[in-house]
Amino acid sequence: MVTSHPIRRGVACPGCPHRAAYVACREALGRGRARVICGDAGCAAVGSMHPAACTCVGGEEALLDRYKAPVPQGGTPQEPSCEACIHFVPDAALARDDESAELAGLSAEGRVTILAVLASSRAFLTREAIEGLAERALALGCGDAVIVDPFDSQRAAGVLCGALARPGVHAVVFASPCAQIQRGEYEAEPAEIDAYACMSCHRCQQITGCPAISFEPPVFRIDADACAGCDLCVECCRTHVIYSPRSRMTPEERSRARYAAASQ
User: Fold this and answer.
1) Which CATH topology does 192-262 take?
2) Residue 181 phi/psi, 5° resolution?
3) In angstroms, rounded to a whole number, what is the distance separating the alpha carbons of residues 223 and 233?
4) Which residues pair with 213 in a beta bridge?
5) pTM of the full predicted structure?
6) Nearest CA to 173 among 135, 139, 229, 210?
7) pLDDT tens for residues 172-223?
8) Whole-angstrom Cα distance, residue 249 to residue 90?
9) Which part of the chain has CATH 3.30.70.20?
10) Quick check: helix, strand or coil at residue 82?
11) Helices assigned H by DSSP within 43-196
């Protein structure tokens, strides 16, 4: 992977699949006082991080308190704390036995609760290991569990919207390897912003908060050395001025390339 961007505590790296998972959840859930995204979207490298910090320029330290929604408390399965809750949990945390107590009250968090499992670390690169996380979620009380690539935005949106339409507790396992462990012969060619066509709308940075994107007046630019080739910004650009060398690849092909790079 071509990257010179250092790992920073509390800041999601360029190409982080946790960022893509949060963007998908935020878009599917929408806004409202009774709609909550909470939990931990961090990893061993960057530390604990509120899910909203994934797309905050500056990360956890820069995230305003009003965006740090806590895990809903005080509800019961009969009278949940909110209408809809998406509760993030890292793969390693879900795999630990001591996590059972913390997640035992999922049904009391929301009328609809989604356990968003982030399967990205080196220990969860195989299908068997990922399916093990889904089985673990079922054992903790989730009614169903679906595995999805967070960078496959259309399928992720469909899975999330379908789950949010059904009362109960559901699990969505967001499976894609950490950008920092993609090595070998694979080189993620960077996405590129057309400086002549960019409208400076700020949408790419506001939605993704990616450290590889910066505003260099009068336009936005992508640091070619830092870009991990996740192409999340490409999908966010409504004026279609961000180009990717992977535009002809299917989501499945891009996913296979990422896993092949992480398995070197």
Assistant:
1) Alpha-Beta Plaits (3.30.70)
2) -105, 5
3) 13
4) 222
5) 0.95
6) 135
7) 999 999 999 997 555 678 999 999 999 999 999 999 999 999 999 999 999 9
8) 28
9) 192-262
10) strand
11) 91-95, 99-102, 106-109, 127-139, 153-164
